[in-house]
Amino acid sequence: MIINVGIIGAGRIGKIHADNLRGIPQLRVKSVSDIEINHLESWAKERQIEVLTTNYYDILNDPEIHAVFICSPTNTHATLIKEAAAAGKHIFCEKPVSFSVEETKEALEVVEKAGVKLQVGFNRRFDPNFRKIQQIVQEGKIGNPHILRVTSRDPEPPNVEYIKSSGGLFMDMTIHDFDMARYILGSEVVEVFAKGAVLVDPAIGEAGDIDTAIITLKFANGALGVIENSRRAAYGYDQRLEIFGDKGAAKADNNRANTVEVSTVEHVSKEKPLYFFLERYTQAYIGEVKEFATAILENQPVVCSGFDGLQAERIAKAARQSLETGVPVKLDQVGQSTAIY
Question: What CATH number does the domain located at 124-280+305-333 have?
Answer without folding.
Answer: 3.30.360.10
